[in-house]
Request: fold
Amino acid sequence: MFRIQLEGAASDFACHADDTVLRAGLRAGLALPYECNVGACGTCKFELLKGEILNLREDAPGLSARDRAKGRLLGCQARPLGDCTIKLRLDDACRPAVPPAMRLGELTETRDLTHDIREFRFRAQGHAQFQPGQYALLHLPGVTGPRAYSMSNIANADGHWQFQIRRTPAGAATGILFDHLRAGDRIGIDGPYGIAYLRTGVPRDVVCIAGGSGLAPMLSVARGLADSQAMHARRLHFFYGARTPRDICGEDLLRQLPGFGERIAYHATVSAAAGDPPWHGNTGFVHELVRDTLTPALSDYEFYLAGPPPMIEAIEHLLLVEHGVPPGQIHFDRYF
Ligand SMILES: Cc1cc2nc3c(=O)[nH]c(=O)nc-3n(C[C@H](O)[C@H](O)[C@H](O)COP(=O)(O)OP(=O)(O)OC[C@H]3O[C@@H](n4cnc5c(N)ncnc54)[C@H](O)[C@@H]3O)c2cc1C
Ligand code: FES
Reply:
């Protein structure tokens, strides 16, 4: 166990020899800045003032050539080799409401949602504590580095952690999940992480926008809203953007929520309509459907987004630049 001192802070925090600086800080309840946890976004950058660090992912895209030249490191890829002193700016938005922890989860069940998205259900000891919209890091046998996956269910006392995962062609983690993991197998589940969680105290109608494998956290937000007192006073617009008709999913799961068809509406669109099954619905990108469906002003809504970076960028442009939605009303984690 090593001690990590933040420059200028009164106290330090403990970090296990096999943990990372970022995760150890979050486990200690500190507001260390982060987003993806896998070395891609660069939000967790810091400067090492004293001590030695093992860089777990030398080629991580989250560091630019300039960052490397300046000796910057990524907190999510930094394993201390002794006591360290580091310099970074805390971000109060990242302070964990539920400090992340590692547990073993046993695969209990899987089911296919589409031709390439499968739901994986795990059970772990103790309460499954997380906020709707958060994610966990799955540690899979034979895969270098954990992978981030969003929970699709909501917190529960029975230790159920559910994920909806899209198979990536030749993907290391999804290859293990889809082709090798069997019911009864156990993996490490580390979480919760993520700041794009449901805010129940906000008096605005809610818009969830999911693209591709972003279904899970948006479903979790919808389920969390339906489970809260807030749903009685609010409406939920759920948008799903798929590539082809056979990629469409989520409506059957939303239909199970109380208020579907009255206070909850599902809207889907495909960017390539040709294919099987025949498609007679909306075509185009999901941000275009959001623009054409919602009654202005868009600043009257609270937005939750999940999907690939180009989708998030297109929606951010629509909301922030074209419609002046305050940034504090837009919550997302990019899927790298
Ligand atoms: C916050 C977040 C939430 C996500 N939620 C979901 C979800 O709910 N459902 C879903 O289907 N997908 C989700 N993803 C994407 C998912 O994490 C994987 O990127 C995807 O499944 C491909 O993984 P793979 O190993 O099969 O593919 P590969 O092509 O083998 O790996 C690509 C991914 O692995 C990461 N990576 C590569 N090497 C390392 C390493 N050494 N250490 C750590 N990471 C490494 C890359 O940054 C990239 O994300 C999420 C991603 C993020 C960031
Ligand atoms: S690069 Fe570390 S949180 Fe994204």
About this structure: The chain has a mean pLDDT of 95.
